[in-house]
Structure formats: C-alpha cells, structure tokens
Amino acid sequence: MVYREVFETILFYAALWNPATATAVLAGAATAVAALGAIAWAMLRYSRKLPIGKFFAFSAALVAVLAVVLAGKGVAALQEAGMISVSAVRGWPRIEVLGIYATLQTLAAQLAVLGVLIAGFFHNRRTAAVHAANAP
C-alpha cells in the first residue's frame, strides 16, 4: 500500500513538473517539509498533554463521515459512467458536498456503510466494556 501511494505521488509530481513550474513545485515541496516538521515538533512537544482518547474518537468519527460521503460519491460516479442504473428518489435533497444524491442506489450504499459503521462502533463499545469488567 505504501508503494502504491509513493507511485501515485510520483505520478502527480511528474504531471506537474515542467520548466515553467519547477520553482513552484520545489517551493511547495519545501513548504510541505517545513509544515510537517513543525507539526511533528508540536506533537512531540505537547503529546503528553494531548487527550489521546478524545483525539482518536474525533478522528474515528471524521473517518466514518468520510466513508458515508465517499460511498455516495463513488456510486454517483459509477452512475455517471453508466455502470449502475439511476433510480431517482422524489423529494430527497441533493447535497453534493456531503455525497448525498437523490437516487436509490447512492442512498442504499450510504445506508449500508452507515449500518456497518454503527455495528462496528457498538461492537467496539461492547468489547471495551467486557475487557474493562474483566480487568484486574
């Protein structure tokens, strides 16, 4: 997976690179390295004070929301490509930024992802409660 990400990054930069944009690409890379260095320094410096449980709870919720959004956008893209049929749902809003499209297929995919997420969160809570009850 890491190799794939590196390959995609190289392709991205290769597409951007030409004599006219070389300075901007290098400046952007230098800025990114500096920003990552500052973030790493801040995290190492203040990580003792970071409420790690709250941090991971927030990041898990954010990833869950993104999963639902991407499910809707993915199915909508397949519909635009003609690979999945389109069954319109009347009276349902279309909110593209949230990946909500007024079609039965996109809503079904999002409900399926939401169901898996809810089941996973409940399973994790129940497992954590069992471990806490059995802890010495």
From TrEMBL:
The UniProt entry, under Pfam families, shows: FTR1
Extent of the signal sequence: none
Q: Which UniProt keywords apply?
A: Membrane, Transmembrane, Transmembrane helix
Record's subcellular location? Membrane
Identify the InterPro entries for this entry.
FTR1/Fip1/EfeU (IPR004923)
Q: Does the keyword Transferase apply?
A: no
Per the record, membrane topology reads: Multi-pass membrane protein
TM spans, by residue? 20-43, 55-78, 98-122
Superkingdom of origin:
Bacteria
Q: Which family does it belong to?
A: Belongs to the oxidase-dependent Fe transporter (OFeT) (TC 9.A.10.1) family.
Name of the featured protein: FTR1 family protein
